[in-house]
Structures are given as C-alpha cells and as structure tokens.
Amino acid sequence: MSKAMNTSGYAGFISARRLLFWSGIVALCAWVLVPIYLVALGALGGRTGAYQWPKNFLPTDISLQPFILFLKTEGVFQSFLNSLGAAGITVALSIALGAPAGYALARYNFRGKDSYRLLVLLTRAFPLAILALPLTVSYIRLGLYDTVLGVGLIHTVLALPFAALVTQGIFLGVPRELEEAAWVFGCTRIQAFFKVVAPLALPGLVATAVFAFVISWNEVFAASVLTVRHRTLTAYLLTVLSESPMHYRFAGGLMLILPSVVFIFAVRRYLFAIWGVSSK
Amino acid sequence: MTQNRSWIPYALILPSVVFLGLLFVVPLVQTLWLAVSDNGTPSLANMTTMVTDLNFGRSVLNTFLLTLAVVPIQIVMALTMGSMVAKMNGGRETILWIWTIPLGISDLAAGMVWLSILQNTGYLNSVLFGLGIIERQTAWLTYQTPVALFIGIAIAEIWRGTAIVMIIIVAGLNQVPKEFKEAAEIFGASPWTRFTRITLPLIRPALQSALILRTVLAFEVFAVVYALGGRNFPVLVGEAYNWQNQNQNYGVAAAYAVLIMVISLAATLVYLKAVKVDPERLP
C-alpha cells in the first residue's frame, strides 16, 4: 500500500518536473517569437494600427497594403537593391579570399601559420565596424565613398576572418585520402580540388556564404558612415528613423528580419558545426 | 607535403593577408594616428575634446552598465537553454531553430521590434492597461525615464544577442563526452554537481569565446539604442557616429574609436586570463 503511494508520488514528481521543463521551453520559444509576431502586426496594421489604443493582440485588422505602401516609399526599394549588392560583394569576396586560406590552414603545415591564425583571431577582439571611421577619408580619395562596392569591402573585413576559420573546418572534414587518390589517378592538384574536394565541401561553403550574406545584410554602423545617397537598407532606415511614422519603422524592421530568418532556416543544420569550429 | 611545393600555402593565404592588411591594419593605424594628431602634428586635442564633452561621461557609464547587465544574463540564459536541449529527445531541432532565429536579426531591427512593444501606444502599455496597472498611456523611452529606457534597451539586447552565445555553448556541450556525465551519475553526483564540476570546466573554451565575442559586441552597441531611445541614451559608438556624421569631426570620432578598441582589447585580455583553458583537461 505505502509502496504504491510512494511510486505514484514519485510519478507525480516526475510529471511535475516534466511540466516545468516543457513550460520553460515554451516560455523561451514565446520570448523569441512573440516580439516578431507583434512587429509584424505593427508593420501590417498601418497608421491606424500603430496608434490604436489599447492594442488588439489578434491579427484582425491587418492587410498587406501598408507594407506595400512602405515598399513604394522613395528610397526603400533602391536601398534594398544596394543591400543586396553589398551583401553579394561580401559573399563573393569572403569566399574567394577566405576559402583558399581555409584550405591552406587545413591541408598544409607552414611557417607563419600560427601568426596568420593570430591575425585572423585578432580581428575578433576589435569592434571592426569602427574602422569605417578612418576609411571615410581614404574612400573619398579612392572614389569608393558612397558606393555599394565600398560598403561591400568593409563588410568583407567582417566576414573574411569568419570565412577562413569556418572553411578550414569544412576542408578538414573532407578526407585527405580522397584527394591523394585523385592525384594518384593523374589529376593535377587543381583538378583534384575541383572534382573531388569542392563537391564534398559545397554544402558547408554554401552555409558559410549565407552567413557572410547575413553579416553584411545586418550591418548598420559602417554602412551608415560610408554612404550618403547610395544607402543600404539598414543605413537608409537608420537615417530616416527619426522622421518616419511608427508603422514605417515596424515595416522596416520586418523587412530586415524576413530574409535573415529564411536564411538561418536554410542553414540550420550547419549552425552548430560552424560555430563549434569557429569558436575554437 | 613535398619541399618544392612549399610556396602553395603562402599563395593561398596571400590574397586574404593583403586584403586584411589594406582594410584592417591600415585603417587601424590611421585611426590611432587620427586620434592623437591635429592637422598632421601629434596632439592630444581630440582626446581632450572627447573627454570634456558633455556626453562623454554618460556614454562611458551607459556602455559599461549595459554590458555588465546584458552579458551575464545572456550567458546564464544560454547555459539554461543549452542544458534544456541536452535533455530533449524529440523536437530538439525545431526548438533549437526557434531559439537561433534572433541570430539573423540585426540590432536595428531588434530595436524596431521592441519599439513596437514599448512605445506609448504599444503592447506593453496595452497589457498594463488591461490589467489595471496603468490608467493612461505611459512613456518608457524618454530621457525622463532613464531606468525604464535602460531596461528596455537591455531587454532588446538580451533578446537579440543570446542566440549567438547559445550556439557557441551548445556546440561546446556537444563535444563533452557522454561517458563523463554517466560516470559522475554512477558515482552519485547530483545534477548541480555534475553541471558545476563536469560540464562547466569542460566547456570553458566555448564559454571563453562566447564571452569575448559578446562583450566586444556589447561595447559596439549602437543601433538598438538609437532605434529605442534616439539620443536620449548616449553610448560610445553613438557618440562616435555623431561626431563623424553630424559634426564632421573625424578626429574626435577616431578618439572614440580608439577608446572603444582599447576597452574591447582589455576585456579580451581579461577573459583570456580569467577563464583559463587548460589543454590537458579537455576531452
């Protein structure tokens, strides 16, 4: 009898703990998701929604109209294109410069390897976007000031160290024996790389590219300092912030959030592999 | 590798070295020089202007307070999240994905998200009104409510920045061998003991890099603050931005940049010393 009561008490204790555990998980999910839901309501609620009091938490008065109106505002679409351009340059450059370095770090032992790693790690201890400040002067001289290319270059400084470290991990994951076998069968090193290594490393490289894209897409400070008329989306939103109505700010926030969320979803499998490597 | 091919790795790293040299090392030196010179001659004028500026003291204080408030909470939250997913079997992937969503969100967007909640006719006030706590719309984000503004900015930063800490910590937790925990369990260690004596020491490298990354980012805080409080809450990077873009004074902006770099480097060194990573104790 008493034994039976004990077990049921124990089971109750277990299920109470499980309940607590799962409510914790649900609460943390809500903590992440509810604010995004609310800003979406704000973006799709228009002017009347923004000043409605008290607020309605249900999506009853929303339509795409206010968001489309925001997209048609002068400067929004152009800055969206500029953001895409800067992010595209960042992706191309950080992979083109970072992946060879990552390959060298993964496959070769050479003098200066540690110094190189130190240089790459050193960039992490610096608030890199701040470097945009002195760059203004050089950029004006070189004709890079207020250009999408200039923004892409500084964003590459942010993404390149990351790309080098991550691609090192990716190439370490491709067995060396496969590459050597290709050499034995008469491939040159370059052929072996593109026929054997590259296909195996491709998913990881794509994930690295996506991260480089997100780094550039989200960067605010350097982009705002280095542009005046050819603003990226973040720089545009920052400069018009104080004079925009509330619902435009929410629409801008939503527009910044959507692509990154999709991208993070696309690379979710690689998140931990990548950060496990780059945090060593 | 064979001797005659020893040039290959150098050829592979050269482009990135040149690039980082031109766009990282050169601007770094330029910043230092700009900060301590005036019209091409060494001078402390920029530093003096910075230090005597009305907003200087407040921006230093605000930046440090924000970092001190945000980083520890993020580490604790990330450790909690990491331990929670470690206990899960089904649905682990989905939960992890949801928790990492803020990783893709810029600080500017995070500021706008929390603006929709904290503004006068926002959702926080609506809830408080519904509960009968407030009678009319209340402003939280003005210079007259510095504490509320500080808490609002801190919450937005915690909301956005915890994901990256969690990812690094989960990646670290994944590398802890199961045997260690099982052995401790067999010897009767309580969950708390297992956590403090086994897990924490083993994820020190992850903890260290999460701390460095997050602290450097916290000293760079800018767009969240600007989106929520405008210029009501001065921070270091915001001041640098104003000196550069509004006042067109690149020298004082560079002085702020140097200050931010020195603080970030100092924090990194402190973490490297304080969170010692003993290679022999790693799995």
UniProtKB/TrEMBL annotation, chain B:
Membrane-crossing ranges are: 12-36, 56-82, 94-117, 147-173, 211-229, 249-272
How does this chain sit within the bilayer? Multi-pass membrane protein
Give the UniProt entry's GO cellular component terms: plasma membrane
Specify the taxonomic lineage: Bacteria, Pseudomonadati, Pseudomonadota, Alphaproteobacteria, Hyphomicrobiales
Family in the record:
Belongs to the binding-protein-dependent transport system permease family.
**Protein name (database record):** Sugar ABC transporter permease
BP-aspect Gene Ontology terms: transmembrane transport
Origin organism is Aliirhizobium smilacinae
Q: Does the keyword Transport apply?
A: yes
InterPro entries the record matches? ABC_transporter_permease, MetI-like, MetI-like_sf
Q: Which keywords has UniProt assigned to this entry?
A: Cell membrane, Membrane, Transmembrane, Transmembrane helix, Transport
Any Pfam family matching the protein: BPD_transp_1
Q: Can you give the residue ranges of the ABC transmembrane type-1 domain?
A: 60-271
Record localization: Cell membrane
